[in-house]
Predict the structure.
Amino acid sequence: ITRGDLYRRSGHLPHYADSMYPPMPVDENDEYYLRPMNCPHHHKIYAARLRSYRDLPLRLAEYGDVYRYEKHGSLSGLLRVRAMCMNDAHIYCTPDQVESEFRAILGMYSHYYTRLRMGNFRVRLSLHDTREKFAANEAEWLRSEAIVRDVLNRMGVEYDEEIGEAAFYGPKVDIQVKNLMGREETVSTCQLDFVMAERFDLTYVDKDGALKRPFIIHRAPLSTHERMISFLIEFYGGAFPTWMAPVQARLVPVNEDVMPYARELEAALRDHLFRAEVDDSGESFNKKIRNAVTKKIPNIWIIGGKEAENRSVTWRRYCVKEQITIPFEKALECLQTMRRDRVMDNFPDVPLPIA
């Protein structure tokens, strides 16, 4: 929480009061608000001491909780909530550093989307219009928009320009994804801010000894934690890779005789911090397999007499029909590699990393 004056100074309160929780009166002339965004708080951290050009770029990142009073009709599962965890950062840099920082951020976005195989997205260059919402400095708008446009063109990124979608303090690059209902949502954003440095009197001492204003880049690579999880649930249909799955391995014993061996393997997996469980239900063997497949558990380890005798497992992956039988120690090493390297084993073209 913080005093309302901070959000008045930033300009968020005049523009977004309807999306903020109502103020909490503390003293006679003092009102506090639940934090709806991180930006002004990071600006205060930057302003806490004198900065030099040698300090820049200064990158402040926070995985912090924010609160927004979304209207009841717009709430939608994890996609749109009122309390959320924002993966957020603000980068304070000189004009000469803007392009390299933008490139690095967009490169990070490309890495994430490639790794997660989220291909159904488009890039939007969000520009200003003549409404009062946008800061009244046409020259700076045109200059900032040209900088961002030039970066995208140099990187060879295909994008659509849309008027009126900018932040009130500068242009932005948005990664737009459609959910299963066909509604488009912003998942990632990278914004070039030319307004807040002046409003918060942010400066740095340049090489010539003069005080100058930094550019500020706002970046949120994977939206809020809740929204990104909602997109991944939809995109993967609940079939997560091992490193992301709620249950990473289910052991299915063929009969009661091999239950001690199954429990031993379960304990070993849990000792290595894997989310593993034995199916000790009274269902038939075939029903146990169907249950594991229905729940989209990425790794089903079948334990029979031969497996117990040879200290091995028969491994069935959710996305692959073929089964393999390998020693338990090799299977454990493989699981550790999949978790450590964030292997996307929920896709059938990705082989098990068996040494």
